[in-house]
Write a structure and sequence with these properties.
The protein has 13 helices and seven strands. The model is unreliable at 78-97 (pLDDT under 50). By secondary structure, the protein is α+β, with helices and mostly antiparallel strands. Among the domains are: 1-77, Rna Polymerase Sigma Factor, Chain: A; 169-289, Nuclear Transport Factor 2, Chain: A (Roll), CATH 3.10.450. A hairpin with a 2-residue loop joins strand 3 (239-244) and strand 4 (247-254). The longest helix has 27 residues, at 54-80. Helix content is 55%, strand content 16%. Strands 2-1-6-5-4-3-7 form a seven-stranded mixed β-sheet.
Length: 298
């Protein structure tokens, strides 16, 4: 076997892990593929015999590439502050549903959205340590901090990811179950199941950008609201419960980017009101976190 073929074979044994790391750091399959490909190009330009631990070297290089990409992404977002947003920011684009499903299944919409609220170095430290159990000593070299400072960085990120629930854990679990039932029924288009979690006098409010042009911003009554929830079913495929400003809500994310947030008022295990938030300025002001505060490497 030729030397370059042997090197390529070695790299392929690490590709799945590197892609998983990059997906969680970048929240994008295409960006993750780009990062992993760049790691391969860098490997092909170095003396492999001088690398003591190929797995750790590749992970470090991939993480540094991801950190640079996150920093570049943050800079572009700062440039967009104050500019007018495009019309209908919540329009549905069904391109690439298979790839979206792969990312959602392996990572989860809520985790992607919450990770996107972290600073680049926080995100890298959290993903590597809390999801992939990489030692702080190794992460420190990636984020250019001491191990002690890196530990504090990950701790700060962890607090953001976990959030601060405003209600007791038992009540949080009950409300989460109500929201999960709501979302499942919406995905299935099951009108009867939707009605079981809606109070008779439920009120639905929504930003205009989240609705068809002729739909009212406010709807009252269980049957009227339930019909609208059925229409929400396609988007509900990309929805997941999350903490929204400390209460149980839901986020809808496509391609790792937040599109909608839903807030709920729940009384006696029924939804008495909910709001669909779509305006970018309003979304940016929300505090988002995972309900259970944990994440899986997948």
């Amino acid at each position: 076997m030729r030397e370059d073929e042997q090197l390529a074979e070695q790299f392929e044994t690490h590709r799945v892990h590197l892609r998983a790391v990059a997906q969680r750091m970048l929240g994008s399959l295409s960006d993750a593929d780009d990062a992993v490909q760049e790691a391969w190009l860098r490997l092909s330009r170095v003396d492999v015999d001088a690398i003591e631990n190929l797995a750790a070297w590749l992970r470090t290089v991939t993480a540094r590439i991801c950190l640079d990409m996150l920093r570049s992404r943050s800079s572009r977002r700062e440039d967009l502050v104050g500019q007018q947003m495009p019309e209908a920011p919540c329009s549905d684009d069904d391109s690439g549903p298979e790839r979206e499903a792969v990312l959602a299944d392996s990572v989860g919409p809520a985790l992607l959205v919450v990770l996107d609220t972290l600073e680049p170095a926080e995100r890298v430290a959290f993903v590597l340590h809390d999801i992939f159990a990489v030692p702080f000593a190794e992460i420190a070299g990636i984020v250019d901090r001491t191990p002690v400072a890196t530990k504090k960085l990950a701790s700060r990120a962890r607090r953001k990811v976990r959030g601060t629930p405003l209600i007791p854990r038992a009540e949080l679990a009950r409300r989460r179950q109500v929201v999960e039932t709501f979302l499942t029924a919406a995905r299935d288009g099951d009108l009867d199941a939707i009605l079981t979690v809606l109070a008779p006098d439920v009120v639905r409010r929504a930003d205009r950008a989240a609705l068809p042009a002729d739909a009212p911003a406010e709807v009252r009554g269980a049957h009227s609201v339930a019909q609208g929830v059925k229409d929400f079913g396609q988007r509900a495929r990309f929805a997941e419960p999350a903490l929204v400003d400390g209460a149980v809500g839901a986020v809808v994310a496509r391609w790792g980017r937040l599109q909608l947030a839903l807030t709920f008022t729940v009384e006696d295990d029924r939804i008495t009101a909910y709001e669909v938030i779509c305006v970018p300025e309003r979304l940016a002001r929300l505090e988002l976190a995972l309900i259970d505060g944990c994440a899986s490497a997948g």
